[in-house]
Specification:
The complex is a heterodimer of chains A (682) and B (150). With 682 residues, chain A is α+β, with helices and mostly antiparallel strands. In chain A, 61% of the residues lie in helices and 13% in strands. Chain A has helices at residues 2-30, 33-62, 69-74, 81-86, 92-113, 122-143, 186-201, 203-215, 221-251, 262-287, 291-314, 328-354, 366-398, 406-426, 437-460, 466-497, 501-511, 513-533, 640-658; strands at residues 149-153, 158-161, 168-170, 401-404, 539-545, 550-553, 556-567, 571-582, 585-590, 593-597, 602-606, 608-611, 615-624, 630-638. In chain A, strands 6, 7, 8, 9, 10 and 11 form a six-stranded antiparallel sheet that branches. In chain A, strands 5-14-13-12 form a four-stranded antiparallel sheet, with no helix packed on it. A three-stranded antiparallel sheet of chain A has the order 2-1-3, with no helix packed on it. The relative contact order of chain A is 0.07. Chain B is of the alpha+beta class. Chain B contains three helices and seven strands; from the N terminus they run αβαββββββα. In chain B, a hairpin with a 6-residue loop joins strand 3 and strand 4. The radius of gyration of chain B is 25 Å and the shape is elongated. Classes of the chains: A alpha+beta (682), B alpha+beta (150). Chains A and B meet through helix 3, strand 2, helix 13, strand 4 and helix 14 of A and helix 1, strand 1, strand 7 and helix 3 of B. Strand 4 (401-404) of chain A pairs antiparallel with strand 1 of chain B.
Chain lengths: 682, 150
Amino acid sequence: MTIDIGHLVLILAFACSAYAIIVSVVGALRGREELQVSGEHALYMVCFLLTVSVVLLWQQILANDFHNEYVASYSNRAMPNFYLWTSLWGGQKGSLLFWGWLLSIYSALVVYLNRGRNRELMPYVVATLVSGTLFFILLNLFVSPPFEKLWLMADGRVITALTQPVGGSVFAAADGRGLNPLLQHPAMAIHPPILYLGFVGFAVPFAFAIASLLTGRLDGQWLHTIRRWTLVPWFFLGIGMLLGGKWAYMELGWGGYWAWDPVENASLMPWLAATAFIHSVMIQEKKNMLRVWNMSLILLTYILCIFGTFLTRSGVISSVHSFARSDIAGWFVGYLVLLIAVPTALVVWRLPVLRTKNHFDSVVSRESSFLINNLIFLGALFAVFWGTVFPIVTEAIRGVKVTVAEPFFNKVTIPIGLFLLLLTGVGPLLAWRKTSSRLLKKIFLKPSLFALLALVVLLVAGVRHFYALVSLTLAAFVTATIAAEFHKGARARMRGNGEGYFLALYRLLQRNKRRYGGYVVHFGMVVMMVGFTGKAFDTEKEGHLQIGESMQIRSYRLEYVDFKTLEDENKVVWQAEMNVYKNGDLVKTMYPNKHFYKVQEQPTTEVVLRSTLLEDLYVVLAQPNEDRSVVFKVYINPLVNLVWLSGLIITLGTFIILLPDATSGQRKTPGATRTKSSVEYA
Amino acid sequence: MPAKKAKIAVAFAVVAGLLVWLTISGFNENMQYYVTIEDLHAMPSTDMSQGLRVKGNLVAGSVEETPNSLEAYFTIEEEGRELRVRYDKERPDTFKDGSEILVEGQMTEEGYFDANFLMAKCPSKYETEEGEYDLKDYDPANYQSPEGTN
């Protein structure tokens, strides 16, 4: 019963979405307020209905209702309760439902919060948002229904259908197949929802962009409204990628966290576009320039989000993540064509209004540093995009599938990343319009000296890796510029307001959340780059050991002490015991192990770590043998923990920026708290 | 002011040019060709040293592990054609009989494929194709609809 209700609710949601789009557009065209309001109510209703269907699916998963084909495929009785919840997005059908649901929640929130504002834009915002939801509801109704049932036919076949077929009887699997054990990991449990919150969230700025193009209200108002709505999905997308990396690091057992897999690239691409937008939008706020550019960037960001979902869900490019090939590809291509054609036409139509008369004054200015920043971000996006879709393109043109793998991406993105790191230090300190050479010297002399000192220390310490030297030197430089900004701001407040140093720092953050929160995020990026740089110093070693034997890797000696085979109803566990000595001292006893899941007939490697801020000792039980000897794979990954730590710093920084202002609603007069070299953004 | 404008244009052109150069040069050095097992057998020996990507399903029982190391030889199959592969790194958890294997590497003179990268997917177990349901453990009495009506 509840399975049928689930599908029925989706049909109602479909009807409601269609209604919402029509009345909103008609209401806007005819200027009929009651229709517009009705459209908003229909949008709330869509959100409610999708919530009901998600709850129903969760209920069926938790109740082990294996008559439902989706439940039988992605959950089973042995799975811990916590992971049962995650089965909702463990498979394609459920994940598409989840996507639509999240979008409807975002939509309801944005409409509710803007109910008294942006009246002219809102009907079109509603129509655009609901049309996105509608696409996913359509997929859930016609291509990928999460509420299909299993039926046993007379000839013994089991088929999947929405309603009872002729000659079919009710079938329910004795047990489900269960979620892939590789996905049963805490980071993996929250990685998809967080990533989706990012992907889906960009629908909001997209909808506002479309609405402002349609209405011709291209002043700063829509930009002001979407500022936070852009930052939130940007944040989720970034953190989602980090969690995915953490999962790969802990669960896949190859010692790394990023492999330039097409699906990883799929989330990186919109992130790059959004990051470019977050920067260049400041030029528009400040100088009303780059209006076409910003409009295009935010539209592009959402298109890339859908493109990313398409890559993940359609299996057009081989990837570790992709689900089996399915017929949703055609639907996505259609939607993408629409998503590209309509905004492009709108931008071209509004081009005369969008263009601005303002021009750049100098190469050495904040504006041009932002523009170079944008160029670099888009360059990175371009490289990642071509690297990702290259197999499709070559196959279409030349009939041969040609791919570029990890070395390509590393070769291209490392220099780009380093240049961005440099800009992180330089850009925010340049003045608007033009920066004099006297001022340049004043701002950058000390940080440059500090960076030089860092370089000397590194050279003395024996670091010779070129990129690592550049990266760490730049990191020192940027950190110094950020610290100097905080220090300078605090000093200014101490003089002006007679506050103590720490109170001044606190007030500084509080009064200029966007600027100083931004610095915190920048610092997070520096920490992340240092973490990436650790890759330059990693090492790995493989060792075949009998019990009692040891292997040496750098300053660690690993002694293989014992081997155990454990078994429970779910899995078999092979476990080795190892004593780890560092410079001769016993520092840890480790138990690297491998699980073998009986239902799925699949092993999972359980990595063990000895983790310090400076480096991880990463041990994998690669292969247990009959004679209790074991092949171990051991990695030393320097600085990798800084990558995870950077996520926390970026979270903190984003949180500071997003905190509501005490004087909410009122924009501060620019320049009220300006310092000499830079101006607050907010 | 045309001089200023030109300066800015030059600065951007230089950066853009560098990016394009970086991408193109990266491309030329790191291309790998997707080939089928059939292509591979038909290929003249001169082509054999370049980077190749080939996929197939792991033939059941074909894995031959070299004792006391991670090295293994195994056979993958696609449309009736088989290919012997050597791989000496740790195989992923999803590597098992029947799973789809993607390998990167070169053909060797000895006639096996020397892989330096391996990716494995086992879609069949997690994605149900119509009619592929496993009936061996089916007992209709086992199903109790949560609300007792179905």
